[in-house]
Structure formats: C-alpha cells, structure tokens
Amino acid sequence: MGYTLYLPSEPAPPQAKPLPEMPLLILVGLTGVGKTSLIQELRYPTLPDRRELVDRYVFPLYGHTPEALDRSQRFALTRRFRQEHPGGVAEILAQSRAVPAWPLLFDGLRGADEVRYALEHLPHTYFVVLEARDLTRLSRLLGRGDAFDRVQIDSSDLATLHALAQGVLSEAELQEALGWNVPIQELMAKLKIVAEERKNYDPVGARRVLEGNPRALFLDTETLRIEEEVAAIRAFVEQHA
Fold first, then answer.
1. Spatial CB neighbours of 159, under 8 Å, sequence gap ≥ 6
2. Cα atoms in the 13 Å half-sphere on the side-chain side of 92
3. pTM confidence score
4. Range ranked top by mean pLDDT from 66-70, 155-159, 223-227
C-alpha cells in the first residue's frame, strides 16, 4: 500500500506529521542489491521511492524533466544536488510530511552522507542495509530488463570495457562477466551504471556510519534467500515496535 509523501512546498492534511517526528524504516543500498524484490515480499506500507522523490523535487530545481535523462545524466544532477545539499535525499525527507504508520518503508538512501544525515535528523528512523558485490549487482542489472537503466555508450570495444571496469571489478570478475554470453554493448551499459554509482556513493559508506548501531540491520543479499531477509526484517521491526 502506497502512502503519500508531502514535500516541503506541498500542503498536507492535519493528520500528517513531519518525518523527523515519526518512525520510518529506510532501505539502504545501491542499484541491484535486491531492494525491489524485497519490498514486494515484505508488503509493508511504502512511501514514494527514491527515484520518484528525485523526479519530483531535485530535477525541477535545475529545469529538467526526468523523461529526458539517462542514468549518467541523472547521476550528474543528483551529484550537483548533493554538492549543494550534502544530506542529499535525506534532507528532502527531513523536511517532508506523511501520515504515520509502522512500519512505513522508504526505498532508499545511499552512501555515508545521506545515512549520516538521516541518523541525525530523523531520530526515530531505522535502517536496513542491503549489501552485495559489484559483480552481483551487475549481474542483476543485466537480468532485470528495466527501461530506466538506459545509459549512453560511445564505444563498445574490449579496451574501453577494461577501462570502465577499473576500480569496480577485478580482472577475474571481469572475465567471469565476459563469460555470461551478454552482448558487449549491453554489458558496458550496465557496468557504466555500476561504475558511475560507485563514483557517487561509497558502497561501504553506510556500513561505516551505522555499524554497531542498534537502529541498523545489515543483510548480505548474496548469501541470504529472500525468505530469510524478510524474516530478519520482520523480527527487527517487531523488536522496535
């Protein structure tokens, strides 16, 4: 069930409260860690997700419509927003309102700065951090067929692919990816998304901020079955009810 999120400039009904005053469950993780599948299985009430929030709030600030942007262009604009607003999407949440519910789920935050801001400015929020290797996220991106994952690729030769993989995949991981029998253009497009995201958000940044915090739950989505993830989150929610 979807709940309405009232942005800072939008009127809200009397029963809506500022998000800093209410409990919230936030998923933290990069593209391809398995957030969408998990949300479908949890069936918790949800706020509009990160993508919609950025579409509604961030891009209009810079005179852009989301339909005209590919993933690289979106990364560039969200990077600009974070330079001006270090808390990123968490800053938007902290100024917004919603009708209270528990657990009310938001997908999601990324990187150390957003998580740190939420930890400080959304004091009743709990975090579920989903983790997976870059190679696994790449594989999932290739398999999900989401039109949102479009990106401009100027070259599709092996040398360019190796350059793109630097700092993202080891040589062994790259060779494994090349053995997936995927067209190189498609492999490069999805690898570019993983690489661009890594530039913008340190994959282990959220862990550094939240590790040891009782408000955080960490899940390795490579080793856990979806049923195990759901059970762990429901137990976590029950603990903090």
1. none
2. 28
3. 0.89
4. 223-227
Distances (CA, A) of 136 to 73, 74, 142, 218, 227: 24, 23, 10, 17, 19
Contacts of 125 (CB under 8 A, 6+ apart): 19, 23, 24, 25, 26, 118, 119, 215
Is the CB of residue 189 less than 8 Å from the CB of residue 153?
A: yes
Q: Match 């790259």 to its residue by tokens.
A: 174
DSSP secondary structure code for residue 114 in this structure: H
Q: Give yes or no for residue 162 having a pLDDT over 60.
A: yes
Confidence band, pLDDT 50/70/90 cuts, at residue 144: low
Q: Are 121 and 147 in contact (CB under 8 A)?
A: no
CB atoms within 10 A of CB 49: 19
Interacting residues of 179 by C-beta distance below 8 A, sequence separation 6+: none
Rounded percentage of the chain residues whose pLDDT exceeds 90: 62
Residue spans of the domains in the chain: they are 17-142+202-239
Contact present, 97 and 19 (Cβ < 8 Å): yes
Mean pLDDT of 7-13: 93
Fold of 17-142+202-239: Rossmann fold (3.40.50)
Residue type, 126: Y
Return the biggest CA–CA distance within the chain. 59
